[in-house]
Structure formats: C-alpha cells, structure tokens
Catalase
Amino acid sequence: MAKKTSQKNSASAQQENDKTTKLQSFTTDASDQFMTTNHGLKINDDQNSLKSGDRGATLLEDFILREKITHFDHERIPERIVHARGSAAHGVFKVYEDMSKWTKAAFLCNPGEETPVFVRFSTVAGSRGSTDLARDVRGFAVKFYTQEGNFDLVGNNMPVFFIQDAIKFPDLIHAVKPEPDNEMPQAASAHDTFWDFISQMPESAHMIMWAMSDRALPRSYRMMEGFGVHTFRFVNQQGVSNFVKFHWKPLLGVHAVAWDEAQNISGKDPDFHRRDLWDAIESGAFPEWELGVQIVPEEDEFKFDFDILDPTKLIPEELVPVQRIGKMTLNRNPENFFAETEQVAFHVGHVVPGIDFTNDPLLQGRLFSYTDTQLIRLGGPNFHEIPINRPIIPVHNNQRDGYMRQTINRGKTSYGPNALGNNDPLQAKGSEGGFVSYNERIDAKKIRARSRSFFDHFSQARLFFNSQSDAERNHIIDALSFELGKVKAVPVRERMLAVLVQIDKSLAAEVAFALGLHIPKIGLDELNNSIPADADPKDYTSLNPKGSLSKSDALSMAGTVKNTIQTRKVAILAADGVDEKSLSKVKDTLIAQGAVVHIIAPKLGHIISKGDQQITPDESFLTAASVLYDAVYIPGGSNSVATLEAEANAVHFLNEAFKHCKAIAADDEAIQVLESTYFFKKLPAEYSTDTVLREGVIVSSDINSLKDIFIKMIAMHRFWDRENPRKIPA
Ligand code: HDD
C-alpha cells in the first residue's frame, strides 16, 4: 500500500523519550500515500458522491460517502466539565539527588533516570474554544510515565482551593460556569451566581485573593508556578511517612500581564498561551520547572496555626522551605491535539509506591471524581488503553472487555485465584514493588461535619494580601471592583464586602468606594452555611494568631526571577528608510540573549533601509498589536521615523506599551515618534541609568549603552510603578 515508508514529522530540536517512542507505533503519516476507507480500500474519487445519473439523487449504496459522513458526525466528545480549554506538551523529569530517605518512589531515587512526562495546562471555567486570557485559575497537570506506573500530579497554578470539602465542588462549578438560563458569561467569574456562592462561602476568602491577583493572568504557561495543593504523603522503604506539599518553580520566573492587556489579548489572539507554549517548544526554547517539596514530619502535624489537611491553607515557605529536588523540561509538542491533549486522562489517584494520600476531604472526593468523569468523557472503561494514557510498562490484570477494547488478552483465565492459569497475573508483595497503602491508624466516629481546625478562613487571606507589593495589592482591589461591579444583585455585592472586611479593612473600603456602597454589618454565621448553629465566633480565628506570620515574600511575584530576557517578545517598529545599523545592533543582541524579535512595518512585503537593504517585516501594524509583545524598540533613520510619527497605529502601539508598563527604547533619532505619544511629557527631562530603570523608557544615541539598559529593562518585565498615582488603567 505504501508508496514510500512513512516519515516522522516534527521539528529537529524536539526530543524523543520512552513514551514518545512508544507513541510512534500509533502515529500515522499520510505523506505520499493513497487515500483509503477505514477498512483499507483505496478511494478513487473523494470529490463526488455516487448518483443516479448526472443530475440524479445520491445512492444509499454509497458506502464511501456514508462512512465519511458517519465518522464526521461522531467526531466530538464531551468537553471536560472543568479545565476544558487546555494545551499540552511532552517532556522529561530528572531528580537531582536520591530522595530515598523520604520516599521509595523509584523515579525520585535515581538521579540518572529520565522519566517521560506529559503536561497539560488549562483554564478552569471556559469552554474548549474560550480565550486563554480569562481571569481564572490555571490547571497544571503532570503525568509522569514511571517504571512503576503512571503518577499524576494534578495541580493548579495557585496553592490553595476555593472549598474545603469535595461535596461543594459541583456547587462551586455550577456557580462559576455561564448562568444556566442564558449561558452567559463565557470564561468569566464576573457574574452574579459566582459571587452569590462565594459571598456565602467565607472558606473561599484565601483562594479569592489569589484568583483576583495577577496570578490569574499569567504572561505564559511557561512563567507560572504549579502546586499539588493538598498535603500528600511520602513513604520510604522502611514505611516511615512524612507529609509533603509539591511545588513547580518556573526557571523563567513568575510573570503576569495587566488586566486591560489580558482583555485586549483575548480579542487579538485568544490562543495566546497555547501559541506561546507551542512556539517556544518549536523554536527549541524548552520550558523548564524545578520540582519543589515541603516536607513535614508526622510529629509536626499539629505545630501550625492551621490544619495541614485543609486545602484552603498553604504552608508558608518561611516556615517550611521548599527544597528543589528535580527538573522538568518540556521538549516536544504533541503530534495531534485530539489524540493526545484532548484524550489524556489525569487522576489524583494515579500514584506510585512511596506517594500516598492524606485525609484532606477535597482530595478524598477527587479520588472518586477523576475516573468517573473519564467514563463519560472518553466513552467507557478502556480509556487507559488510549495511547497517551498507557503507562510505559506492561499492564496485566483480570479486567476484560468493554467498549473499544484494544488488548487481546491470551488464555482462559480472567479471574484469580486460578489454578488453570498458574495464578497469573501475580500479586506483587511490597518488597516486589506492589503498592501498599500507608498503614494510617483510624479510630473515629462517622460524622458529617467540618473540623473546627478548618474554621479560620481569613488569616491566610490576610497574609496573602499583606505580602503583595503595592501594585499587586492595587490590582486585587481593581479586580474585585471590576468583578463585583459586573454583579447586578446589590445584596451579593454587600455580602462580599462583609467578607472582604474580615480580610482587610482598607481593601473592603476601596472596593466599597468603587461600588458606591457602605460595608454592611453581617455576621459570619449568616455568611456561612457550613457553620453549625452553636458555633462561637472565636472559632473563626486562627488557632494560634500570635504564632502567625504577617508577611511571606514567596507569595508576591515582585521578587521573582528578573535576570533574563529569554523568550520575551520584542517589537521593532520600522518603515522605509530605517537605519539598518540602529535596527540590527539591537535586534542581534536581543536574539543572542534568547529574545524573540519581530519587525513591524506599515505593510507586509519588504521595506528598504537607509542603506538600500531589503528587510522583510514579520508583521504589519494591521496584524500585530502591542499587547502581543513585552517590549518595543524604534530604530533611527529619518524617513522611517517620519513615517512612524504620522502612522496612528505606531503611536497607538507605543501608547499601549506604556500603559501596560512595558520597556520602551528608541534611538535618539526616533525621539519625534515618542513626542507624538501621550506619555512623552511625563518622562523626566534628564536621564540617569537609575531613572531609566525606574521609568522603563530609554532614548539614546549611544546604541551600545541603549541595548544594555534595554535588556535590563526587558528582564524586569513590567514597570508597575508607572500606574502611580493610579492614573493608568492597566
Ligand atoms: Fe479537578 C480536572 C485540578 C479539585 C473534579 N482538575 C482537573 C484538571 C486539573 C484539576 C488541573 C484538568 C486535568 C487535565 O488537564 O485533563 N481539581 C484540580 C485541583 C483541585 C481540583 C488542583 C483542588 C485542589 N476537581 C477538584 C474536585 C473535584 C474535581 C474537588 C470533584 C470532586 N477535576 C475534576 C473532574 C475533572 C477535573 C471533573 C474534569 C476533567 C477531568 O477531571 O479529567 O473530574
């Protein structure tokens, strides 16, 4: 059948690993092949259906038409109820040092071993086709294909969650999803039902601070942290258990876009994060994260002023430092979105020996939900046979049959014990790698209630708010004012103010001002359905307020990595007559440091430089937009400068870049373009390096020093101080 042997289609920089090699046997490539039906029959005409004569009706006999249309009619599967919109990549994980002191998980004990991973990032609330830039939590789900089976770390980019008990999850999601009568709004929490629910769930106060912060607007999936959220257990070979929290720390630092920018990107490029991840991997700029762990010995379980089983609490890094134990590198894009990214099925219950669960009631509920959801989403019990979900080691058990079964199990026996089949497959002892649940002692009464140790809803919300920089704090106030401003029901807004005042009075006062309301006096018991009638208000404060931290630097993005411009996108605005030296000196240096540089001109095709060189722009002002870049440079060349000065789109580009607090550089010759912007008169007349680095705008005739300072400015990412005194709606 094949006219040629099939070729693998992927960029050369991308890497293979055990899992991607195994996937090869399921991939197919149609290059230079004949078209066939699903049953292998060569098709001779795919343009016309079979008809009774030139102008006659189509014949029922046309099995080729029927097969094609039937398959098409069945192409869609239900999208995920949450995290429907996602993007994924293959990669590898390597532990730095043997962790066997803490865990017997083999992939964490062998520093030489590379474990294949598949990672899916997502938004939570929006549908599959919604924008990447919604204000939302981001999913961060990692499937490790280990030699002991798959381990899934199904986390988010925020370390806590909205609710403490899984029984409230359907309510939370019904509240945030588009409202059921009119299916509005899409991919947004800024509506009545979400805040109606949240305002009556004070346990969500901490997570709300995160969700209203810039963490909900990542610059890139590659620039966000990840968290396993729950407290898990590490168990070592001796059976000793320690509590563990998992973290992912991005090597490029944690960066966000501005809210106004996010809304614009949603229109200009709703696939912004998906494209960013894909392009970075295609270009060989492989995203990297370090895996971090916070380890808490069993005997320290009760030493904190919160309950470590409560998923609305984090363990401040100041109390238990994060040890970085390994590195994950994403180095290969999927071959096919549906087969891999859409069909991948994660489950918090996929663990390996050495990793175990705790009694966190949110985790316990999740342990049920993830398999259950795949049964409907992927259509039956054999979803583990879908290539992306298969472990890299063989699967043997007595489970059989079901829709779409692929495996052909040999032999007569599919039960155990069996004498006819030699009792195969065998059960593995703990010493043979069999999973043995941690021997936790349980001695309790059955109750349907919340532990009092879960009742302090506000201390960590306050800790988060207090730990933010001024700009970050202002963004939280703006986000709450925006979201609650979109809520139509005034009593919901008021109830939310009553929650906010428990976190911080100034926060509540500022939001109340924006809403034109006063903060009402509403008792907590009126706000919280889960609070028992006999509860005492003192139960709602920290277990040990004196021992609490007042600030944790790790919670702010202000101190994140700011020493690299790798993969930042820089726009160079140019037109005919541009000074090619002024352009290429800056461009070449930026590229050498790992930035992505695009030349943007009034039209596509080419421009002719001052020295008569032909330069091909990457984008025109029509196809590009400032919100898709991190920084902008205007080279010299009097004709180019005159064109840009008269080009409203170029001036708009700069105005927006300034408004969104981005680095701006101009050759001295191009100053007149800056003069046309609204921000020029706000800039200090005299520059020193210090003022430039504060303002994020540099104009200089000395291209060498300009490019050096520009690089520092781009590395700083955003100049949020520019918003002061809060006159710029970023
Ligand atoms: Fe969940 C998907 C993360 C609580 C029920 N969840 C899902 C995904 C992520 C998370 C990243 C997408 C996986 C993928 O890319 O395919 N979920 C979390 C985190 C939680 C959390 C960090 C709290 C700490 N989830 C949670 C609860 C429940 C669920 C309490 C139900 C009781 N989650 C699901 C689900 C999904 C899911 C319905 C939808 C699609 C899927 O599982 O495969 O089962």
Observations:
- The longest helix spans residues 361-377.
